[in-house]
Amino acid sequence: MVTLSLADIIPFLLLAARWTLLLSAIAFVGGATGATLLLLWRYGAPKVGGVATSLYIQLFQGTPLLLQLFLVFFGLPLLGVEVSPLAAAGIALTCYASAFLAEIWRGCVDAIPRGQWDASASLGMNFLTQMRYVILPQSLKIAVPPTVGFLVQLLKSTALASIVGFNELTRSGQIVANATFQPFLIYGLVALIYFAMCYPLTVGSRVLERRMRISR
Amino acid sequence: MGYEFDFSAISENIGLLLHGAGLTIGLTAIAATVGMALSIGGAAAALWGPGWLRRIVGVYVELIRNTPFIVQLFFIFFGLPSLGVKLTAFEAAALAMTINLTAYGIEIVRAGIEAVPPGQREAGFALGIAPISTFIYIVLPQAIAVVYPALVSQIVITMLESAVVSQVAVTDLTHAADLIQSRTYRAFETYFAVTLIYLGMALLMRWLFNRAGRQLFAGKR
């Protein structure tokens, strides 16, 4: 048993929280890219892309993230690619976030009235121009609040990376708790740090949503 | 590429997997049953309770919804014993899942209650029906009918998230997978098969609940 004061523990946990934020950022950027590609496929080639993207979404929303993580972590080495815990977690969370963001954004694109597609098509715009200048600018506006809400879910999900040995906030908490035998205090602190990162996003999402409802 | 896939580890350990799947379903059933009852109580408290109770429910909901499930589980399993509350791994998992599901359930049920036109409640009062009976027999069935799909999704999410309880040595489906892969060194095949089992369970649960929902709420929407 090691005796550590709060002055040692708190900075240690806060430094570990940087990795949680980094992993969240990687997953969000990767997920947003993936989701955009999925949506372009879905709307660009409705027959094949529609079926394929909804299968992809079903698959990732219908299985535990922990097992997705294990499959990447144990599966990629079989293909001859050695992955670090950060890379495995980054890839798994990217796939996971792609599915959820694609589903959220699909709803936002579907909310654009059919007439917008017809009108832009009648002006001679092709698919990408329609998307770029007519559909996406309108759907982006309604997509912001639920996307920020999903960020909370994603940030919390990064805690699972601790299980494959990535040293983020939860894993650091485990290490300190095991060393000091003060699990109540340590996990309480870890939870508070997560709360401090997530709660502003939750409130932000709520405020944005309310503001949007007023503006319409 | 000299790797050959070998799924014999799965067929040889089917009993272990079935036991694990049963435990996962059992935990989910406990969390869903207790969680739904608490969600309804919590939503009613959040809407009509005294100020202090409303604040407590609000803090509870925000705290749980803004922290990871795995940290809640560790807090309950490793942290509570230092307060003298000793729980087995199974009890800790069931408690963590219930607490987690309830926080989301309260918000969902509350949205459902708010979606029921106030006239329904007023009509109940006007007929001299006691407030509690008005709530149980008039408002609640309509509220649940509205948010039933969201509740089903949340229960399925809880089932999927329960994979994490293997980390405190609850012998659930993921734990069975951990065991099999450590014995056979067939990590990928094992986790792949178990992922498919989870997918099957999620689809089956959704199908059953939707079927039940059509029966339960026929004509209420």
Topology:
The complex is a heterodimer of chains A (216) and B (221).
Chain A (H helix, E strand, L loop, with lengths): L5 H39 L1 H16 L3 H11 L9 H26 L3 H9 L4 H31 L11 H12 L2 H33 L1
Helix pairs in contact in A: 1-2, 1-4, 1-6, 1-7, 1-8, 2-4, 3-4, 4-6, 5-6, 6-8, 7-8
Chain B lengths: L7 H5 L1 H35 L2 H15 L3 H11 L9 H27 L2 H9 L4 H31 L11 H12 L2 H30 L5
Helix pairs in contact in B: 2-3, 2-5, 2-7, 2-8, 3-5, 4-5, 5-7, 6-7, 7-9, 8-9
Characterise this structure:
- The complex is a heterodimer of chains A (216) and B (221).
- Chain A is an all-alpha fold and 216 residues long.
- Chain A has helices at residues 6-44, 46-61, 65-75, 85-110, 114-122, 127-157, 169-180, 183-215.
- The model of chain A has no long low-confidence stretch (mean pLDDT 93).
- Chain B is mainly alpha-helical.
- Chain B has a single domain (13-216), classed as MetI-like fold (Orthogonal Bundle), CATH 1.10.3720.
- Chain B is 79% helix and 0% strand.
- Chain B has nine helices and no strands.
- Chain B has helices at 8-12, 14-48, 51-65, 69-79, 89-115, 118-126, 131-161, 173-184, 187-216.
- In chain B, helix 2 packs across helix 5.
- Chain B is globular, with a radius of gyration of 21 Å.
Quaternary structure annotation: heterodimer
Q: What's the architecture of chain B, going by CATH?
A: Orthogonal Bundle
Number of strands of chain A: 0
The helix/strand order of chain B is: HHHHHHHHH
- Name the helicity range of chain A: over 70%
Structural class of chain B: mainly alpha
Domain count of chain B: the total is 1
Tally of helical segments of chain B: 9
**Overall shape of chain B:** globular
Concise account of the structure shown:
With 216 residues, chain A is mainly alpha-helical. Chain A is built from 8 helices and no strands.
List keywords for this structure.
heterodimer; A: mainly alpha; MetI-like fold; 8 helices; B: 221 residues; mainly alpha
